[in-house]
Fold Type II secretion system protein K.
Amino acid sequence: MRKFRQTGVAVVTALLLTTLAITIVASLFWQQQVQVRSIENQRFQLQKKWVLRGALDWARLILREDVRNSNNVDHLGEPWAVTLGDTHLDQYVENGKADTEQSEASLNGKITDAQSRFNLNNLAVNGVADIQETAVLARLLTNLRINPLLAQSVAGAVASTQPKPVLGGGETGKSGTTNPVVPPLISTDSAASSSDATKGVGRSANSSFPDAAADVQFLRFSQIDDLLSVTGFSPEMLRALKDFIAVLPQKTTINLNTTSKEVMSACLNISLTDAAIIVAGRDRAYFRDLADFENRFPGKITALNSKSVSFSTNYFFINGKVKLSRSALEVNALLERTAIASKVLWIREN
């Protein structure tokens, strides 16, 4: 009886040891699988970045060749305006699949004329709102069924991000040098009675310290999402505006060869119907210059808005998306093109 009990204990001990060994081996295999997946994901991520970098260089090449052959005219019939659909990358990307399996590596993208949209940085110059450009934005908001009164708020917000020039020449000392004019400090009473608009441009209400009277320099607008800092805007409005406005580094003109009827109507102060007729005529034959436009559509451009339009472009948006196996990466970039070279101003990954 005692021997039988010892045999039973030995069997149970053997089973426990076997279970423990299986658990340890399974855990090791699981850790190895996790490490393999992690290394694989890192490899996919690196490959996607290299593919998108190559696509970005390819877009720069297309735009550089275009500026050599376009005669200073950019329109939607040029090679850069052709959208790249889903293109399989079987021969260019190692995806770990057999030759008989269908590849999931693909690339798509497009180049968009950034000057086909209204530039928010046109709304102010040297910290002063531009009345004409503010009216253009108000008309654009009206065309998109958004409250046009928001245009003044946006212009004030953009003006508050720009440094204001020092007015006056200052006082000339005995040595002949010009002493800078120092703005007076604001008293507590005057700061307390200032309007909300004055507070919006960064004037401090606390004059207890000398530095508190200085104007606050807000960060410049860099993307349309910055409109959410302006009272009255919502994410739904931004989704409606994203194809019609842009934030470019400096004041720009609107390319009438690539812009939409909504932006053209606002810029030229014409009806949406007239803008649609102009767009239809442009699709048949692009505009070579201002004289060609006025010859085909007389009276649509006035002396007031002739300086705000053009028929060529210096800024382009580049959008690319690569899919590799179970992951994807999307890149948006802003490119500045000149007659000498092209330069990427920023890149954002999603």
Q: What stands out?
A: Confidence is low (pLDDT under 50) at residues 169-214. The chain has two domains: 19-92+103-115+317-349, 117-163+217-310.
